[in-house]
Write a structure and sequence with these properties.
The structure is a homodimer. By secondary structure, the first copy, chain A, is an alpha/beta fold. In chain A, 42% of the residues lie in helices and 15% in strands. In chain A, the strands form 5 sheets. The first copy, chain A, has a 6-stranded mixed beta sheet, with helices on both faces. In chain A, a hairpin with an 8-residue loop joins strand 1 and strand 2. In chain A, helix 3 runs antiparallel to helix 4 and helix 4 runs parallel beside helix 5. The longest helix of chain A is centred in the N-terminal third of the chain and has 28 residues. At the A-B interface, helix 2, helix 4, strand 2, helix 8 and helix 9 of A face helix 4, strand 2, helix 8, helix 9 and helix 10 of B. Strand 15 of chain A pairs parallel with strand 18 of chain B, so a sheet runs across the interface.
Chain lengths: 492, 484
């Protein structure tokens, strides 16, 4: 398979040229033409498109079957993977259902200034786009973006993460098997291949991963004036108010943290903020529910993903072993490097300048503290911020004053399942958004189109200029009917 | 005045720190503050128009009509729209929820990004400075404006007026050139809005990448005009002239850069243009007061060089006169210059208009597509099918059929580029959005918690959760009843 040999700059160049040609030949845009030419009633999706998108459904279903076999190999949270496939199928079904609407030009109101005219905003594909995916949700974070790119009519190259090699290989195989490879391709590889790809000119780059590499991606994009969407991460805080249903709160935090790839998710609860008085109750409740969920020996539970690789294991170990942190462990802390497992671990009041509080953890342990809003604001903007409370005023204050990619009150992470909400970061946690129509928009150019009439041309805007013309033109631009009349009547 | 001394890295740092403190203190976030600032901008437009017109005459030789209508009036419109719509724009937008997240309510909240930087251009120094600032302020940000040093009178006037009228704890102007801009770019901004050349656009985005700062880049390109033989030639030509020489003498980002028409039709186009040009600017256009001059000698020399190039200078069919002392070049039309000439390789940004002839009009689409995507593309025709094809298949920032440039006056249309001509858009609500973060907010209830999503997992839980995520009521019932 082509993906196996070394992929260098020349290969990247050939790849992009080939895709550009297919794009220019209108392969991805056939629908656009076909849809605008057919009538609304009795419309069926043109073959090229429905094959692509229905193929995605087939891909998703195939993956579900493959997940069964892959689970033992990948040793990950089976439940998590199934949820991912469901999310993908939802995404595909939504796109299939809404595509006609999304593709339709949007009428724009005109004004007196441009009368007579009609205006609209046309969504057009950007061209040939690059999607660079992450290792923690390799299927979701690859296919979801490819769905957006294809719906918007682009040719797309997907570069899955090399840190999830089985998923990467499977994606390459399935996408090649089911989709039109003149416009959709997968390039497997690591730094060399990614660098080769980044040297090419793309019409958009969609990157999911770390802030550090996000900067590298944007700098590469800057050389070609390529717009980017960067879905990065951050330390997503969870504020727990004492006026809450503690059992539900704690269960949702656990499900959102350890239940989502064992804390290895961009919107994972990173640390908890609660009052000194309430903290002991929170910790007790967490210990109790953690045991209910994962049993007395969580290291043996099949319901948690493992740590992805030894590099990340060592990184997390280091966070735990740091002086003045290791003595703050109040639950868990067991490590098993051979099986890449770390038990769900809770720490209490680690120093604010400790490693664990300095970088995004993506791992299984939160810590507690006080003065929440200020603390969140003093840190880089996270991808998500959470609050658990019954207090209406607190909820409103939180939603209006805490800046994060997204906010969820009384739950964790579920906003990513709601396609009517834009999912994306702000500041250090990223730029741009996707999901639902936002995905389609992310991969489109919103082109302004204004149609004017050649009739009724007025000399008022043409030289030689005069005071009279100046006054009339001003009135026209101001769309001020009164002034227009005054000027026309020579009264101003 | 503070702006006069050297502005270096330390000053930039202090500036941003100050503004960030104001922002964190909540100065810019209230509706009242934003409205007050916008009203002050309106006062500037209403009370200081003569000074603005004078500054533009100094910097660009811009005729009063252009200054008054295409800068001040457009700004006034922009401000009035923002004042009228701000409440709507600021209101959270409800988002529909689904069965998967039930019970829940969701909305999209527009929040300010923080402290933003607007770097403006020299050709429409007031419009291109204040229009983005309107967006920044409406969205609740603190903003620093860096006007172009190539329009020094306008830059100084902007600095003076904005310091006089606006809240300088949150809105500031930094005058200067490369040194000052570089110092500013080293700081961390929450957004950078740049209007100017593609070349500097790369520099801005690279600087922004260091801090993961999102950008809007309003750049330029060679905006083509396709002229069909099936058109009203007189109106077509008048509008092209008004859009080219009538807009800062061709020195505008959406200026008609070159014309594409058929070999048969070209002579008619040229004759019509000569006739209308004479009607507009008289027999001695170099003496007409109704056109801006060339901004400075650097650009004059650049344009001269284009005209003087071998195999280009002999293609002049009208005009060509140059006066370096007064920085004037006559409206000049050229016919069929080589495609690889300077004049066809970079954005002209001046009073030169090449006409390229084709065997048939269809070829124009390919010509345009073979070049970097421009900020605007124009077509003059009566032919409905041609209009539709053009709008659907020609990629540009914006398309106007049967006129030039007027789309920038319509606030319901996003104004921005694509590819080489830029990224992001503004005008109207798009300005507000450009300077906002659209934050997703989901409120869930603590009641009715179902154990289905919690470990330990079982096949039954799996099936139910799948059905829930699929929002499939039928499957949900089947599972709940133990039937699947």
């Amino acid at each position: 398979m082509a993906a196996k040999k070394m992929f260098g700059a020349a290969d990247a160049s050939i790849l992009v040229t080939g895709l550009s040609r297919s794009f220019d030949d209108g392969v991805t845009r056939v629908t656009l033409k076909r849809i605008s030419q057919t009538s609304i009633i009795g419309l069926t999706y043109p073959p090229t498109w429905s094959v692509s998108l229905l193929s995605m459904t087939i891909v998703a279903t195939s993956m579900m079957l493959c997940v069964d076999t892959c689970t033992t190999q990948l040793q990950c949270n089976f439940f998590d993977k199934l949820r991912v496939v469901s999310l993908l199928r939802n995404s595909i079904k939504l796109a299939l259902k809404q595509l006609k609407n999304w593709m339709a030009p949007e009428k724009a109101k005109t004004s007196l200034t441009t009368f007579p005219a009609s205006a609209e905003i046309v969504s057009e594909p950007l061209g040939v786009v690059l999607v660079i995916s992450a290792w923690n949700y390799p299927f979701l974070l690859s296919i979801d973006h490819v769905i957006g790119a294809i719906s918007a009519g682009n040719a797309v190259v997907l570069k899955p993460s090399e840190l999830a090699p089985a998923s990467s290989a499977l994606l390459a195989k399935l996408l090649e098997q089911y989709l039109d490879s003149s416009v959709v391709r997968v390039v497997e590889g690591a730094v060399t291949e990614t660098t080769a790809l980044l040297e090419q000119k793309w019409d958009k780059i969609f990157y999911t991963g770390s802030s550090k590499i996000g900067r590298v991606i944007m700098a590469a994009a800057a050389k070609r004036l390529t717009p980017v969407v960067l879905e990065l991460g951050g330390k997503s805080p969870v504020v727990v108010d004492s006026d809450t249903d503690l059992k539900v709160t704690v269960r949702r935090i656990i499900a959102g943290k350890w239940g989502c790839n064992n804390g290895q998710a961009c919107i994972s609860p990173d640390y908890i903020l609660t009052t000194k008085e309430y903290a002991p109750k929170v910790i007790d409740a967490m210990k109790k529910e953690l045991e209910t969920f994962y049993g007395k020996n969580p290291m043996e539970s099949k319901d948690m993903s493992r740590i992805v690789n030894s590099t990340h294991f060592d990184r997390l170990s280091k966070l735990l072993d740091e002086k003045e942190v290791s003595d703050k462990i109040v639950y868990g802390g067991e490590k098993d490097r051979e099986n890449l497992k770390i038990a769900p671990t809770i720490l209490l009041d680690v120093p604010l300048d400790s490693l664990i509080m300095s970088e995004e953890n993506i791992w299984p342990s939160p810590s507690n503290s006080h003065e929440s809003f200020d603390m969140i604001r003093s840190r880089p903007k996270p991808l998500a911020a959470y609050l658990f409370t019954h207090n209406k005023k607190l909820k409103e204050r939180f939603a209006t004053t805490v800046s994060a990619g997204g906010i969820v009150v009384n739950d964790i992470a579920v906003h990513l399942a709601l396609h009517t909400l834009p999912f994306g970061g702000v500041g250090e946690s990223g730029m741009g958004a996707y999901h639902g129509k936002f995905s389609f928009d992310a991969f489109s150019h919103k082109k302004a189109v204004l149609y004017r009439s050649l009739f009724g041309d007025s000399a008022v805007r043409y030289p030689p200029y005069s005071r009279g013309k100046l006054r009339l033109l001003k009135a026209l631009v101001d769309s001020n009917i009164f002034d227009i009349f005054k000027a026309l009547l020579g009264l101003s």
